[in-house]
Backbone:
């Protein structure tokens, strides 16, 4: 299993009020899976995503990432896990505006301590994988939404993480660019990349192989998609 | 993430906000250049002062009559040519010279213009006691003193002012004292004793025979000061005591004479000077601190502006240490480049100001090193808090920041 969570609780404390965002969630993702997590806003799916991505800590339960218990890891070690084992793709791309596409893709490798020459090669390779060979010296502001998201995917892939986490990756895109992104995800998945994607759109979720639905901090259904839409 | 990448990245960000960076640096630039300029000018003044006194002769003792309103000196206590002659007999003493001072106005080429001159009534021994460097002609001679001759030795600055040249032996100058006007024949031209003479209305010095001085100023045979060169430099203090004792015996009084050495005068003056320099430098340092606060302010703004960037970097695996270092380097680049510009400005500003004041400023390496260190330390000190704030940002909150 790449991801295994057991009896996960997440409680936020807002002054004297306790808000339980996740209650007793158990969930796992095997190697090579392409899972979508669905749910309305406030259902707890983003909280789960943050915990899976080691950006947030859990209140109770266990989280194993790639066989390692990461529930209690903090600080520098946690940053290393984010760097090496997790690739993030965000709804709003989250590229650094001052850096060009290539430099953005190189960024995770800088924090991994990869040397300059290796970085360049790996970044070009990752960009090639997402089908972006032109405009790689352009800044994000000069790229289209679809191109930006492809740069972001290349950045997420470049340290060959154990898992790719995508949070509403098509949310800011028109339907054609959205389809393009989904086709890239499907191709990457066929190449062996494990992907967990959060979405609230059933059409998008139907491109994946498995859908877990969230409501009020709990998983209400977890089903295999019989015939995923192929792009 | 290595240091080189941090520096490149920080330099990019400093350069991206050019106007803001320059304005932020300005505080540091002004602070650093002020510190360097003030200390180098101060050191320059000190150097020229030392030079001046060194010429005067370290072995010279100055003897004055000690008096105040409650305890006025009587006619009997006054120093005279006879006291000088008496002292000169003593084996501990090699040369005794007399000096009295008054100010006069000397007429320039244009008769309606005058120059302020410090007139010293002296004997032939003053040349040795004060190391007067005669360039043309000769110094006062004993025959001038014996005859109370109306002759004068002037400084080259005054010669140039009156005649437009320095070799003016044989010319006549007209000097007006409070007692009246006299014509004096120039017998010698000396090098300026004080490098600042003739500038900012500072008087030049001219020497006339003490006897002539006494006559035109109605001073009887009284002199203001005796200049005594001790035979043995190592026994300066003992000689000073002996001189005081001898004079008391000669004049029949007690505790009337004050003997000071050049060294004690140098010590006193440089003490005053370093206090002034130190105080002004302190003010400059305060402005440096204010500049540092400006850097901190801008760094806090930068951190807020780049909250999202910090969130992104953290999500990609940046550690708190990486983020802290990035912002610290940025603050240091701001202060260090401000510091370097400030050093150049202070250095050349010091020379510009120095040449205006007619002295050569001395930029000391420790001062430069000290200010560079100070500016870097300010960068670190005032960068720590913003960098810490950035490092501690919660990535989730930071990513959501608009």
Residues:
């Amino acid at each position: 299993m790449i991801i295994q969570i057991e009896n996960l609780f997440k409680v936020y404390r807002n002054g004297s009020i306790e808000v339980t965002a996740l209650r007793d969630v158990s969930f796992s993702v095997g190697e090579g899976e392409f899972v979508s997590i669905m749910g309305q806003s406030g259902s707890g799916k983003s909280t789960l995503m943050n915990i899976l991505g080691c950006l947030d800590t859990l209140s109770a339960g266990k989280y194993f990432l790639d066989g390692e218990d990461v529930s209690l890891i903090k600080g520098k070690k946690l940053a290393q896990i984010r760097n090496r084992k997790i690739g993030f793709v965000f709804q709003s791309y989250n590229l650094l505006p001052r850096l060009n596409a290539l430099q953005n893709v190189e960024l995770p490798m800088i924090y991994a301590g990869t040397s300059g020459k290796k970085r360049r090669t790996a970044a070009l390779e990752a960009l090639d994988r997402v089908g972006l060979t032109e405009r790689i010296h352009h800044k994000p502001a000069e790229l289209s939404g679809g191109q930006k998201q492809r740069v972001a995917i290349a950045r997420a892939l470049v340290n060959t993480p154990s898992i790719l986490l995508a949070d509403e990756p098509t949310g800011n895109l028109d339907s054609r660019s959205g389809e393009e992104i989904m086709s890239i995800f499907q191709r990457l998945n066929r190449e062996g990349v494990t992907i967990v994607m959060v979405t609230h759109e059933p059409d998008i979720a139907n491109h994946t192989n498995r859908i877990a639905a969230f409501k009020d901090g709990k998983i209400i259904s977890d089903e295999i998609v019989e015939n995923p839409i192929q792009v | 993430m290595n240091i080189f990448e941090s520096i490149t990245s920080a330099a990019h960000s400093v350069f991206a906000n050019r106007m803001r960076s320059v304005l932020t640096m300005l505080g540091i630039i002004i602070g650093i250049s002020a510190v360097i300029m003030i200390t180098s000018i101060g050191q320059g003044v000190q150097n020229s002062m030392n030079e001046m006194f060194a010429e005067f002769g370290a072995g010279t003792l100055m003897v004055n009559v000690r008096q105040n309103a409650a305890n006025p000196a009587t006619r009997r206590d006054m120093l005279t040519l006879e006291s000088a002659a008496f002292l000169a007999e003593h084996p501990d003493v090699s040369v005794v010279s007399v000096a009295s001072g008054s100010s006069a106005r000397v007429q320039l080429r244009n008769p309606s213009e005058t120059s302020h001159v410090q007139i010293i009534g002296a004997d032939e021994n003053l040349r040795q006691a004060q190391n007067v460097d005669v360039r043309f002609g000769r110094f006062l001679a004993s025959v001038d003193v014996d005859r109370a001759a109306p002759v004068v030795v002037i400084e080259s600055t005054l010669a140039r002012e009156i005649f437009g040249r320095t070799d003016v032996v044989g010319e006549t100058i007209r000097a007006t004292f409070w007692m009246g006007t006299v014509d004096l024949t120039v017998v010698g031209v000396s090098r300026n004793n004080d490098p600042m003479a003739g500038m900012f209305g500072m008087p030049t010095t001219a020497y006339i025979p003490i006897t002539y001085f006494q006559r035109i100023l109605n001073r009887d045979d009284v002199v203001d000061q005796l200049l005594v060169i001790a035979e043995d430099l190592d026994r300066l203090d003992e000689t000073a005591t002996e001189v005081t004792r001898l004079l008391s015996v000669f004049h029949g009084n007690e505790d009337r004479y004050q003997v000071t050495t050049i060294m004690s005068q140098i010590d006193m003056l440089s003490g005053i000077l370093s206090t002034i320099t130190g105080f002004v430098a302190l003010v400059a340092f305060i402005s440096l601190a204010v500049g540092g606060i400006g850097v901190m302010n801008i760094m806090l703004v930068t951190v807020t502006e780049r909250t999202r960037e910090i969130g992104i970097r953290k999500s990609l695996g940046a550690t708190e240490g990486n983020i802290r270092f990035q912002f610290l380097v940025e603050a240091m680049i701001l202060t260090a480049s401000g510091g370097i510009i400030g050093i150049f400005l202070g250095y050349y500003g010091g020379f510009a100001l120095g040449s205006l004041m007619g002295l050569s400023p001395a930029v000391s390496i420790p001062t430069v090193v000290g200010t560079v260190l100070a500016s870097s330390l300010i960068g670190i000190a005032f960068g720590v808090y913003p960098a810490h704030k950035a490092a501690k940002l919660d990535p989730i909150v930071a990513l959501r920041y608009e």
